[in-house]
Here is the input.
Amino acid sequence: MTSSLTVVGLGYVGLPMALEACRVGMRVSGLDSDPSVASGLTAGLSHVDDIDSTDIAEMLTLGFNATTDPGCIGDSDVIIICVPTPLDKDRNPDLAAVKEAAITVAEHLQPGSLIVLESTTYPGTTEDMVQPLVEEKSGLTAGVDFNLVYSPERIDPGNPEWGLCNTPKIVGGLTSACTERGVQFYSQFVDTVVPTVGLREAEFAKLLENTYRHVNIALINEMAVFCHEIGIDLWASIDAAATKPFGFEAFRPGPGVGGHCIPIDPNYLSWVAKRIGYRLRFVELAQEVSERMPAYVARRAQDALNRSMKPMNGSRIVIAGVTYKANVSDQRESPAKPVTAHLKAMGANVSFIDSHVDSFTVAGEEIPRIVDIGDVAKAADVLIILQAHNEFLDSRELGHVDCILDTSGKFFGDNVDRL
Ligand SMILES: NC(=O)c1ccc[n+]([C@@H]2O[C@H](COP(=O)([O-])OP(=O)(O)OC[C@H]3O[C@@H](n4cnc5c(N)ncnc54)[C@H](O)[C@@H]3O)[C@@H](O)[C@H]2O)c1
Here is the structure.
């Protein structure tokens, strides 16, 4: 069984999906509302970490068609929606892209198709919002004329071990026939497909995974602040605790949470809870603790300067790694921004080094860039490692920096102060 597929939204989630579908012989179209995305891919250029120009060339050879023309939906028996689900200005769920995509799909939908929503969202979105929109605009009935499924994406950009094909995929359908169809579809390129009893359980599973991570990161961040106060090396304690073969999963502290999932998804959960007058206090507390970390990192830099009798005001601070995690180029919700804002508010002159990005802007101001790692030692009173990209781990030059504040736990030496 192969399928003809349209992937709606060709970002970090949609593009790897399209690649794997091409590889198993599906006829794949990629629909993106941004013309530069479609034209870039057609020209062989990738805009996504983990997918390089060789992959795009392979896709194009296998017939991949990147387009802004929704006509491809009518030629596809499976349509996967992978559009962004950000927060609005009040930090509530913004489902505008999902609504727009659902309407576009409905306008071109053929009977017998399978629609999958992969965007992360709150439980109930597929049934309460996508289904009525598609039914109204297409005149077709979900579960009868077309199948409807929710399948959360678990992609972890930059992870060399776990990718789309070997990470189990959750699938929940409107009806058992919808679930079965979804399982059959994904089984063509994913090793393990896990059906749930319904749509809401699949939607909730994704939020549960990310909220679990969010709460545990906040817990370990709180422990980092506490352990520093009482003179305990938390990193060593984590390594020791992690030797327990059951009942403990190691999370490590950092400068704050970033990316498109951890800082955002728990808000989708809190929003649903608030609607029924319920407060998810663990989630709120985790957000509060994580939001305090950038200011804490700035304060620790000030402490480091203080030990050398230097004031923060007028100091030269270099931050290394401005993306939200190591070895990717994605700056979304990166803690580097609030860290920089705090340092600047305290009077520091901040510059950055990161070969994964060309520019780094905070509150509209371009932060000066250091290109050569060999220049860091003379440019920095303090170097703050925010994300331990491989280029920093492999560098001998950083050994010459007077003072390193390391938030990654991966640097050692007399000149290193770890979070
Ligand atoms: N990035 C991750 O690591 C990750 C992991 C798991 C889940 N998710 C979830 O997957 C979803 C997509 O995230 P992403 O990181 O791929 O986003 P992205 O911003 O990288 O890509 C989304 C793409 O969708 C396009 N788009 C927006 N509206 C559209 C529309 N109406 N029609 C067609 N195209 C449209 C955009 O132009 C963009 O190219 C989100 O809900 C996100 O929470 C992301």
Notes: The first strand starts at residue 4 and ends at 8. The chain has a mean pLDDT of 95. The two ends are 52 Å apart (CA to CA). Residues 8-14, 31-34, 37, 82-85, 97, 100-101, 119-120, 153, 155, 157, 260-261 surround nicotinamide-adenine-dinucleotide (CB under 6 Å).
